[in-house]
Amino acid sequence: MREKSSAKGFSLIELLVVVGVILILASIAVPNFLKARRSANEAAAVASLKAIGSGQLAYRSSQGDFVTLDIYKSGYNFSSSAGTTPSLEFTATAEPAVSTGITATGTRFFFVNQDQVIRCSAGSSADANSSPLQN
């Protein structure tokens, strides 16, 4: 006659089933998390470009010219400089630090100038001829 074992715990099959369920849930959740992060980075880039545009106009009204800047924020590289007529024109761009692959920080490129219309382009640098951003 067999004696009952007093050892308590989970069998190997039970542990494998639990690990399988966790892997399935992770394979669903991780891509959605990365997509949400890219969307948040793009929204932050648009907000930052609005602030840069307003700041450029405020600086010009007090100093007479536009300022040049290069910064990195929320997965995007921002660049702003005076145009061909420094007292009348400026351009600012926001480009994702990584624009392709699973680690992409964003997929859209943004542009704004003294007209304060934010323009976007998917996959390549945005400019004054890119389509306006639809809010």
Element order: H for helix, E for strand: HEEEEEE
Largest sheet properties: 6 strands, antiparallel
Q: Tell me, rounded to a whole number, the average pLDDT.
A: 90
The number of distinct structural domains comes to 1
Task: Determine the strand fraction and express it as a percent band.
Answer: 15-25%
Query: Which spans of ≥5 residues are poorly predicted at pLDDT below 50?
Result: none
Identify the CATH class.
Alpha Beta
**Beta strand count:** 6
C-alpha Rg (nearest Å): 25 Å
Write a structural description.
The chain is of the alpha+beta class and 135 residues long. It has a single domain, classed as Glycoprotein, Type 4 Pilin. It is 39% helix and 23% strand. It is built from one helix and six strands, in the order αββββββ. A six-stranded antiparallel β-sheet has the order 1-2-3-4-5-6, covered by helices on one side. The radius of gyration is 25 Å and the shape is rod-shaped. The mean pLDDT is 90.
Topology:
Elements: H1 12-63, E1 69-73, E2 76-82, E3 90-96, E4 108-113, E5 119-122, E6 131-132
Can you give keywords for this protein?
about 140 residues; alpha+beta; Glycoprotein, Type 4 Pilin; 6-stranded antiparallel sheet; 1 helix; 6 strands
Question: What would a concise description of this structure say?
Answer:
With 135 residues, the chain is an alpha+beta fold. The chain has 1 helix and 6 strands, in the order αββββββ. Strand 4 (108-113) and strand 5 (119-122) form a beta hairpin.
